[in-house]
Design brief:
Elements (H helix, E strand, L loop, with lengths): L10 H4 L7 H10 L10 H5 L8 E3 L4 E3 L1 H9 L8 E3 L24 E3 L4 E3 L1 H7 L6 E3 L4 H106 L3 H12 L8 H4 L14 H9 L5 E6 L2 E2 L6 E7 L11 E9 L2 E8 L4 E8 L2 E8 L7 E5 L2 E6 L4 E7 L3 E7 L5 E7 L3 E7 L2 E6 L5 E5 L2 E2 L2 E2 L4 E6 L5 E5 L4 E5 L5 E5 L10 E6 L5 E5 L4 E5 L5 E6 L8 E6 L5 E5 L4 E6 L2 E2 L3 E6 L1
Antiparallel strand pairs: 1-2, 1-3, 4-5, 4-6, 7-36, 8-35, 9-34, 10-11, 11-12, 12-13, 14-15, 15-16, 16-17, 18-19, 19-20, 20-21, 22-23, 24-25, 25-26, 26-27, 28-29, 29-30, 30-31, 32-33, 33-34
């Protein structure tokens, strides 16, 4: 940026204040004045003659023969021009001598270090008498060349680094192409398996239908054959009766009468028509809604995307929004405990547990209007975790339940699990499992989606139990389990197998007093809230203290749950205020994941 000395003056008077760009000067040296052919005299060429040039005027930008060179020197206004001798064997353009634009006959020989401007002698006398540092340009050559040499080294280093980066990017491009091809193959393979399974079901249905159809049609054919035989029998017996009626013998009439009385005239197939176990009709019923939902819920796979430019935990958080979770039918003051954010149908949806109003709530913006949904839990809900892109799991400890809720973004109750223990904290793990925290006895259990305990973890650290009230849990990007325990006043990182990765339980200014919410970002950083100390703490992935990223001075009082959404916004539940505050920081080149489930 250049500060103009006198902007009220005409542009042409202060345009020289703008600093020259060495790149442009280099282009001018190459393609501008002095870049022309120096072999023949420029003036003679204008008159149709070809004369060997012996000199070059960098000011006029012309090549001169001996005759024109003499005329050039005889002109008073041209005498101070910078002229280069070209009479030697090697015709190399000499150094450019810059002339003052205001004093055309004066060369720029001085440098005003106060004004950072090259000036001529007259300019020094007229405009720079009060300046403290006016030196000759020649005296600064060593310094400028030294700085230029250092700059050259720096540029050369950056050039090398950029070349290496471009080379790596090219390799990465090829790797990504191969990776995309492999993912495409996996998607096609998964889809083909589904198609093959559907084809198997189709074949089974068709075979079953064919067997039933064959049996049913066979029965109908048998009925037709039996009926046709009965018709012939009836016809034959009718003829016998006619013969008896026409007979003159009374005995013939009597015997026929006795036969009819005994039932001999009944068709032999009548009994078959009355038998049971016959097919009356066959129908095919298809539940299209159920089929569509099954296809929607088909776990074909997921696509994880890494985005750049998200939350920079080194920057100062800035309050962006305050979500008041009070809704019309609340009977008590809201008490938000835990929070997560889902993206459902391209709508950012904030899901919060409200302990005092025994409900889970969602808040979102649709059609430029803020909307909400409320779902009663029948008891105070505590912790929640995201299961899929549109489902969360919620603990309701006083009812001994874990509830599955669908977010559309309105909330829909899907199912409830009743495990054998009362669980408080919860987080989702890979392979459709859950990690949950219990305080009776203190442990972290690994559950399947039916509520069955696959593994129970009660770790010791230095001979002491490190779990007492594991109320809040989170999953790291490597699949480990983070536990915020208000009883032991520490943060614990566990593997799903139960090994202790680290514990954070310092003393002094960084000690925890009442740890609550905990979350792990896609960069591995850990955020923990301290309810009593009114702060949000930033830890490294290995459990080292970084700083208090939010404090009471920054608007935080009694924080509970915390989460970071895919866009880099940080959400903090403030229990006593009944609100969720949304913060953001300046952004930098780090990564965050976004998952699309198919």
């Amino acid at each position: 940026m250049t500060k103009v000395s006198a902007p009220e003056r005409p542009v042409e008077e202060w345009a020289d204040d703008i600093k020259p760009i060495f790149v442009i000067l280099g282009l001018l040296d190459t393609f501008g004045p002095g870049s022309k052919d120096t072999t023949d005299c420029t003036y003679c060429q204008e008159h149709g003659e070809t004369t060997l040039a012996v000199a070059w005027c960098s000011v006029c930008d012309d090549a001169l023969c001996e005759k024109c060179y003499g005329a050039h020197n005889c002109t008073p206004s041209f005498r101070h021009h910078d002229v280069t001798d070209l009479s030697g064997e090697v015709k190399v353009k000499g150094k450019r001598k810059a002339m003052c634009k205001e004093h055309k006959q004066e060369s720029l020989e001085f440098l005003c270090q106060d004004c950072k401007k090259a000036v001529c002698q007259k300019c020094c006398i007229l405009y720079h008498r009060k300046c403290d540092a006016v030196v000759t340009i020649t005296s600064q050559m060593v310094t400028m060349k030294t700085e230029l040499t250092e700059m050259k080294k720096s540029l050369t280093k950056k050039e090398g680094e950029t070349k290496l980066r471009v080379k790596e990017q090219k390799l990465q491009e090829q790797r990504e192409r191969d990776h995309y091809s492999l993912m495409k193959s996996h998607i096609q393979s998964a889809c083909q398996k589904v198609i093959d399974r559907a084809k198997q079901k189709e074949r089974k249905l068709l075979d079953r239908m064919e067997n039933i159809s064959h049996k049913h049609i066979g029965q109908l054919k048998a009925d037709i054959k039996t009926g046709e035989m009965s018709v012939l029998m009836y016809q034959h017996q009718t003829e016998l009766i006619d013969q008896a009626l026409q007979s003159e013998c009374d005995m013939d009439v009597y015997e026929m009468y006795q036969g009819c009385e005994a039932g001999d005239v009944e068709a032999v197939g009548d009994a078959d028509l009355k038998e049971g176990g016959r097919i009356a009709s066959v129908t095919f019923r298809q539940d299209t809604d159920k089929l569509s939902k099954s296809l929607d819920d088909l776990p074909l796979g997921e696509i994880k995307v890494l985005y750049e430019s998200v939350l920079d935990l080194k920057a100062t958080p800035v309050l962006q929004d305050t979500i008041d979770i009070r809704v019309a039918d609340d009977r008590s003051k809201p008490n938000p405990i835990d929070v997560t954010v889902l993206v459902v149908n391209d709508i950012d949806t904030v899901v919060v547990t409200d302990w005092d109003n025994t409900s889970v709530k969602s808040f979102y913006v649709k059609n430029n209007q803020t909307q909400h949904s409320k779902l009663s839990m029948g008891g105070p809900p505590l912790s929640l975790t995201k299961l899929t892109h549109n489902r969360v799991s919620v603990t309701v400890p006083r009812r001994n339940q874990i509830v599955i809720v669908e977010v559309n973004p309105d909330l829909v109750l899907r199912s409830a699990i009743t495990p054998s223990k009362r669980y408080w904290g919860i987080t989702s793990l890979p392979q459709s499992t859950l990690a949950v925290g219990s305080n009776s006895p203190p442990c972290v259990d690994i559950l399947d989606m039916t509520g069955s305990v696959l593994r129970s973890i009660s770790p010791l650290h230095k001979g002491k139990k490190i779990l007492q009230y594991p109320d809040f849990l989170s999953t790291t990007r490597t699949g480990n389990i983070l536990v915020s325990d208000r009883g032991t006043k520490c943060v614990v990182c566990l593997t799903p197998e139960g090994d202790v990765v680290f514990t954070y339980s310092p003393t002094g200014d960084t000690a925890l007093e009442f740890p609550q919410g905990i979350t792990s970002t896609e960069t591995g950083d850990i955020l923990v809230t301290d309810f009593n100390l009114h702060r949000v703490i930033h830890l490294t992935e290995s459990g080292q203290f970084v700083r208090n990223i939010l404090t009471k001075e920054g608007g935080i009082t009694c924080p509970a749950g915390v989460c970071v959404d895919p866009s880099g916004y940080m959400y903090v539940c403030l229990s006593t205020e009944g609100v969720v505050k949304v913060f953001t920081c300046n952004h930098s080149q780090v990564y965050v994941s976004d998952v699309a489930y198919m």
